[in-house]
Design a protein that fits this description.
The complex is a heterodimer of chains A (about 900) and B (about 80). Chain A has about 900 residues and is of the alpha+beta class. Chain A has 33 helices and 22 strands. In chain A, helix 13 packs antiparallel against helix 14. Chain A is elongated and about 135 Å long. Helix content of chain B is about 40%, strand content about 25%. Chain B has 3 helices and 6 strands, in the order βββαββαβα. In chain B, a hairpin with a 2-residue loop joins strand 1 and strand 2. The longest helix of chain B is centred in the N-terminal third of the chain and has 11 residues. Classes of the chains: A alpha+beta (about 900), B alpha/beta (about 80). Chains A and B meet through helix 9 and strand 2 of A and helix 1, strand 5, helix 2 and helix 3 of B.
Chain lengths: ~900, ~80
């Protein structure tokens, strides 16, 4: 992606967000001129930027939005809910396009219709006086009668040609192209545009009004319309008029509407004899005779006569659709009156069904570029190669399935049936050999059209090798193309463009790709590790080499480097700090939409949006928060009537409050809804078998409420459908846990529910305590550690099989870390026969972890375990220590 | 140069751009009986087409490009029914 586009995507996202925010704010204060101007500016900027690229669909919607906002700003239109809804829809659409741009760097022409619909919807809200240029929009389809008379103006020869096209299966379109007056100034050439249309049957340039005297003519105002009858595919037309769909009306033409005999009546209807004879022939099914009769009469008549025209049509229809007796009959009978036959009730579509099985005109056969076909072929060849491998591998079934999948996808793309692949796969799997698939593929190779230099005949099993280079080549091509695209910083970057002058106020903010900041973060992490090795060096200097002086100097130097590194780390963390508003800003919209859907009235209060936390933490917060808010809306808050009956205001109140408390971010989500009834929770948990009978009676209300976090409390549906069942809170807790946060829930029946999330400010640096067990060192995150104590053996007593001790009048269970890790070793006591116990708090309860020795506390950059190891929940990750050794950091929550 | 004017005759080059329209209009006003030679022309901008349609000038040779010839003849009413 080039730098300019990248910039655009970044800014567009911001703008969209801003627009949504302003719209929400306007809902509160619909008269605020300031907000309105701001909103206009945002839409305007976004439109302007989108115009830099080939995104006509996007620009069109934004342009309509801009016009609408302009008239709102000027007071011509009042802000309304409907207006907000349409604008939001339009912005959602733009967001969708942005997704596509980000993924493919382009927008497919398929969005033209939606785009036009949205733009029209927006413009419909603008008072008519303002939208002279949009008049064709209001009347997109002229009445059919107008079309019919317009068609009648087309010369007969062209109409007959069109009829033949239609009889051969083409769909006909009538195009009325009404270029904008100012189109020349926009660099358009409507005539050129029109001449780009393939398969034009007839076309004309028509003056909109009689031409003025040459002296008064303004040749730079477009006053010419174009009318065309074409047999072009609709998709092609849409593509051609992609930039100006509002200036063109495209209608399907019923071929029968073309059958309009014209000419001089020459004394009126006097062809009774011919009509009688022709009808007789028709009744006798003698089409050849009818043709001959019509031909001879045509030769005798002047070509300018109505009669001749009718006969020419008759002949054309005999030739193309001889089975349409009804049409022929009506044409012949019309000679009695010399009036237009009435085609009502007949259609060409019926004709197609009646006679030749003409291909359905709408369905375009998939068009394959040679290049595509070659690629498909290469893919098939690669599959053949895979199938030719030995069948002995253990993973054969997997391999076969993979091949079958590839083949199916490939065939489906080519529009071929994939059932056979499935059959061959089933046969191959049951036979435990690639044979059936290989045989099928070989047969397929023979029957599918090969690319230009045809290769791979069925017998060429080994010959597959011939095409392997091409397969490999293609893969290589793809890879290099990818590499080009994703090339390192600066690789494929074009010139950097300056920002627009009117956006100057944001010029002080530098937008940086997150990956770059992450790189810095990693580098400073390494720096911290490297710096931590200096004290080791100092120790060696002193102890090993006995140079105290040097050791002291190293230590002094270390202090300096340490200070700089820490400041640097702080600074980088600051860069990564993101205000919580990043996630909170979506809630006004979400609450508005959801509450309207549920028929509830909700007042959302956001506080402390500018509280900052590490970007990863803030991002990790997004999904759980959405889940929590939806739960509150869905289950917490009551319907307005119910609230009124309970003596509460009709509108429920949902508060999301963020605040910083030392190195944690606290987020409180509270509603004043019906609250959680502990007895209901207890009963439900009991029914689901999460708690047993004894627990059921023992649980306090608070403990009962906490059960909603229990895994398994939520049903399967609840997990898949976020707004589901009011449960699924274990998912929330899981997500918060992962970033080292905690969740607390309090609730009072009838008064409401409050959820408290506590999250670390940053996840980058973790403070861990190093402990030793069985001669190995482990880290324990400091925020889990309550205290470290030395316990004399005498102070340890056993309750049943469990070791316990009493600390400050409280019984604390003791567990040996060795036991937890499955190490067959006793805890080692120190010289005074004291055991080292690290007291950690798990689920609010202290537990003593018996270890061999405590060591120092260090700051480390915690890296998650790679690959499959990440599933080992008992380890939070690894860190590199200053002496180069690796520290495994335990996750005590998962240890027990 | 899209159009070359000599005395009472204007020769159209293969492509006549939007900038040429004004000149053409002025020339046709000054030479109402001027003759146009479109033989070499393959495309002309809509603005020129409009001038031709409004002025209905004397065209001595139609474009050799058949499709353009058809369009212009149609626009100037040389084909019945158009």
């Amino acid at each position: 992606m080039n730098a300019l586009l990248e910039q655009f995507v970044l800014e567009a996202r911001d703008s969209l967000q801003g627009i949504a925010e302003k719209l929400m704010a306007l809902e509160e204060a619909p008269d605020s001129a300031e907000l309105m101007v701001e909103l206009f500016r945002l839409v305007h900027t976004l439109k302007g930027n989108s115009g830099l690229f080939e995104f006509p669909e996007m620009t069109r919607v934004l342009h309509a939005g801009e016009d609408l906002m302009d008239s709102v700003r000027n007071g011509q239109v009042a802000y309304s809910r409907e207006l907000a809804d349409r604008l939001l829809d339009a912005m959602d659409f733009v967001g969708l396009l942005m997704d596509e741009v980000e993924a493919t760097e382009a927008i497919g022409p398929g969005h033209a219709e939606t785009s036009n619909g949205l733009a029209q919807g927006l413009r419909a809200l603008i008072p008519a006086a303002d939208i002279a240029e949009a008049i064709p929009l209001a009347d997109p389809a002229p009445p059919l009668a107008a079309e019919a008379s317009a068609l009648a103006h087309i010369p007969e020869a062209a109409r007959i040609a069109a009829w033949r096209e239609a009889a051969a299966g083409s769909a006909l379109f009538w195009i009325n192209y009404h270029p904008d007056d100012e189109s020349f100034f926009k660099g358009e050439d409507p005539f050129h545009q029109v001449r780009q249309i393939p398969r034009v049957i007839w076309g004309a340039a028509v003056a909109r009004a009689p031409w003025p005297r040459l002296a008064d003519l303004d040749c730079y105002r477009c006053q010419t319309d174009f009318q065309l009858l074409v047999a072009t595919a609709r998709a092609e037309l849409d593509e051609l008029f992609r930039y100006t769909p509002e200036q063109v009306s495209i209608q399907t033409v019923e071929p029968l509407a073309l059958v309009v005999p014209q000419g001089h009546p020459n004394g009126g209807p006097v062809y009774g004899d011919f009509v009688a004879e022709a009808l007789q022939l028709l009744a006798a099914d003698d089409v050849d005779g009818l043709q001959a009769a019509a031909r001879s009469l045509l030769e005798l008549s002047s070509p300018a006569l109505w009669l001749a025209s009718d006969l020419r049509w008759l002949l054309a229809i005999i030739e193309t659709a001889p089975d349409r007796r009804e049409i022929l009959r009506l044409l012949i009978e019309s000679l009695n009156t010399l009036t237009q036959p009435d085609w009502n009730g007949l259609s060409m579509a019926a004709a197609a069904a009646e006679h030749v099985p003409a291909p359905a005109p709408e369905v375009e056969p998939p068009v394959f570029a040679d290049e595509d076909r070659a690629r498909c072929h290469a893919i098939l060849a690669a599959q053949a190669e895979i199938l030719a491998l030995a069948d002995t591998a253990d993973w054969l079934p997997g391999r076969l399935k993979a091949v079958a999948k590839t083949l199916s996808a490939c065939l489906a793309y080519q529009g071929e049936c994939v059932d056979e692949v499935e059959e061959a796969l089933a046969a191959a799997l049951s036979a435990g050999s690639a044979g059936p698939l290989r045989a099928w593929l070989a047969a397929q190779e023979g029957s599918t059209p090969a690319p230009a230099p045809a290769k791979l005949a069925p017998e060429q099993r080994n010959g597959a090798a011939a095409s392997i280079p091409s397969a490999a080549q293609i893969i290589e091509e793809t890879l290099t193309a990818d590499a080009r695209e994703s090339g390192g910083p600066g690789a494929g970057e074009g010139p950097k463009f300056g920002r627009r002058a009117d956006d100057a106020q944001v010029g002080k903010i530098l937008k940086v790709d997150q990956a770059k900041v992450d790189l810095l973060m990693n580098l400073i992490g390494e720096m911290v590790v490297a710096k931590n090795s200096l004290p080791y060096l100092a120790n060696r200097a002193e102890n090993q080499f006995g140079v105290r002086e040097l050791s002291r100097e190293i230590k002094a130097e270390y202090a300096v480097i340490n200070r700089i590194a820490e400041e640097m780390q702080d600074a980088i963390m600051q860069v990564r700090m993101t205000p919580i508003s990043f996630v909170l800003q979506r809630f006004p919209r979400l609450v508005r939409d959801t509450s309207r859907k549920l028929g509830k009235e909700v007042e959302l209060v956001l506080e402390g949006e500018d509280t900052e936390a590490d970007k990863n933490v803030v991002e990790a917060l997004a999904d759980p928060l959405v889940h929590i808010v939806r739960n509150s809306l869905d289950h917490g808050l009551e319907m307005p009537d119910e609230r009124e009956a309970a003596g509460k205001p009709r509108a429920g109140k949902l508060t999301i409050r963020a605040a910083q408390e030392s190195d944690r971010v606290l987020i409180t989500i509270s509603d004043d809804g019906r609250g959680i009834d502990p007895s209901v929770i207890k009963r439900k948990a009991y029914e689901k078998g999460i708690i047993d009978d004894a627990t059921l009676h023992r649980l306090t209300d608070q403990e009962a409420i906490n059960l909603v976090f229990a895994a398994g409390f939520s049903t399967a549906e609840a997990v898949s459908d976020l707004s589901g069942r009011g449960v699924g809170m274990d998912v929330v807790r899981g997500a918060i846990d992962r970033v080292g946060g905690t969740v607390g829930l309090t609730s009072e029946v009838g008064k409401g529910t409050t959820l408290r999330l506590s999250l670390p400010l940053s996840m980058a640096v973790t403070n861990v305590m190093i402990i030793e067990a069985n001669a190995q060192i482990f880290g324990i995150p400091m925020d889990m550690v309550v205290e470290t104590v030395r316990l004399p053996r005498a102070g340890i007593s056993r309750i049943k099989q469990k070791k316990t001790t009493v600390l400050r009048d409280r019984i604390v269970p003791l567990v040996a870390l060795n036991d937890l890790l499955g190490v067959q070793a006793e805890s080692v006591a120190n010289a005074d026969d004291e055991l080292a116990a690290l007291v950690v708090r798990i689920g609010g309860e202290p537990i003593g972890l018996l270890v061999d020795e405590f060591r120092e506390v260090v700051d480390v950059i915690l890296k998650p375990l790679p690959g499959e190891f990440a599933k080992l929940g008992c380890y939070a990750g690894t860190a590199l220590l200053g002496d180069g050794s690796v520290l495994l950091v335990l996750n005590p929550k998962e240890l027990f | 140069m899209g159009i070359v004017y000599d005395k009472n005759r204007a020769h159209f080059a293969d492509f006549v751009s939007v900038e040429d329209a004004e000149g053409l209009l002025e020339w046709l006003q000054a030479n109402p009986k001027g003759k146009l030679d479109l033989a070499a022309c393959t495309h002309l901008h809509t603005a020129n087409l409009q001038v031709l349609m409004a002025a209905k000038p004397n065209i001595v040779s139609w474009p050799e490009n058949a499709s353009l010839a058809l369009w212009i003849q149609g626009a100037l009413g040389f084909i019945p029914g158009a």
